[in-house]
Design brief:
Length: 372
């Protein structure tokens, strides 16, 4: 039981600090600055890597070279994940789930000495990650999104591969009890993931347009046209009051967001911000999307660019062929792969199959044994 206390305490700490951790990080940033914090984080990771190398080099187990190669490969993949995350707090969050995986694997492996220990640890940490993002979704100071769950799961998977390939605990083949646990774990995890997706996402649309570029939306083209034609003065005024100063604080409260208002604000923000950065293709394409699909609110709220400004930007675009563009606005907020019916059918199939995987082999083997 003593092995369970560290992971449980760490889990409680994660959830207990969700509402205050952003304030803590602000204080740290004010004192150290982002660069010093990033250097400190990289130093800790570097020391952990060196200690792992020393551990592999000094223990009496065989296959030292292959274990070192695996360590370097996994660290390389981890560095790649860190490189695509610009926020140092999110980088630390990624490392957090690797540590959590290691803490939970120890008591699970003590109890289940087969390959099911790896998968069950991954499922358990994945469920904790889902619940973590779910709580963040309801906190005004945090954001809970599906891509963060993918990062949590990736960090956990890397930690388990690191354990399997460098520490090499001796595990027995999967037995019937392990299979039953895996079936139940996958089934329960699928139910929790499906519920989370339906909480934070809507079934939406990927609109493909060769002229403007593709874009995601909560609304069909017909719904966008309807909204464009039925704007009220008060609604337009509320959008004007948000941009740009109050926009970010408004977008943080995911539960009360007006999705149409959100899409307009973020498209306008991307257009203007990328124009300032000199990335004219993004600015030009975002403006085309706004002019074609959000023309009413663009004009009435005063966000419309003058015609001569648009022509000037168009003349300065790079001469690359195609100029394909896909706007990321609302990409993480809408499901476009599944319709509501196909989503539920797929989820039910996965859940039923997962539970049957644990139930059928045991009963079939028992039936064969009793009839021999």
């Amino acid at each position: 039981m003593k092995l369970w206390w560290p992971p449980l305490a760490f889990t409680v700490f994660i959830f207990a600090t969700l509402n205050v951790v952003s304030g803590w990080w602000k204080t740290v940033f004010d004192v150290l600055g982002s660069e010093k914090l990033k250097l400190g984080f990289l130093f800790v990771l570097g020391m952990a890597f060196l200690l792992w190398v020393v551990k592999i080099g000094t223990d009496k187990k065989s296959h030292k070279l292959s274990r070192l190669v695996w360590l370097i490969v996994i660290v390389g993949i981890y560095i790649y994940f860190l490189s695509i995350i610009s926020n140092v707090v999110e980088q630390i969050h990624l490392a957090e789930y690797g540590i959590l995986t290691w803490l939970y694997f120890r008591p699970i492996n003590k109890r289940i000495n087969n390959v099911a220990a790896y998968i069950l640890t991954w499922l358990l940490v994945g469920v904790i990650g889902i619940l973590d993002e779910w709580v963040q979704f309801y906190l005004p100071s945090r954001v809970g999104v599906l891509p963060d769950i993918y990062l949590n799961l990736s960090s956990s998977a890397l930690a388990l591969i690191l354990i399997a390939k460098t520490i090499r605990p001796k595990l027995c083949p999967l037995d019937r009890s392990g299979l039953r646990l895996l079936g139940a774990g996958v089934g329960m995890g699928s139910i929790i993931l499906a519920a989370f997706i339906l909480t934070v996402s809507d079934f939406g649309f990927l609109h493909k347009d060769d002229e403007t570029g593709n874009f995601y939306s909560h609304y069909s083209i017909e719904e966008l046209i309807y909204k464009n034609q039925n704007l009220t003065d008060s609604y337009v005024q509320s959008v004007k009051e948000l941009y740009p100063v109050k926009m970010h604080s408004y977008l943080k409260n995911q539960r009360t967001l007006d999705k149409y208002k959100m899409e307009v604000l973020v498209h306008v923000f991307r257009r203007d911000r990328y124009k300032e950065k000199g990335k004219l293709l993004v600015a030009y394409k975002e403006n085309l999307i706004l002019e074609k699909y959000f023309p009413g609110i663009l004009h009435l709220a005063g966000f419309k660019w003058p015609e001569n400004k648009v022509k000037k930007i168009a003349s300065e675009l790079p001469k690359a062929e195609g100029h394909f563009y896909e706007s990321p606005v609302s990409r993480d907020d809408v499901l476009v792969t599944f319709s509501p019916a196909s989503f539920w059918i797929f989820t039910v199939i996965v859940v039923v199959f997962s539970f049957l995987v644990g139930w059928i082999p045991n009963h079939v083997l028992s039936f064969i044994k009793t009839n021999q």
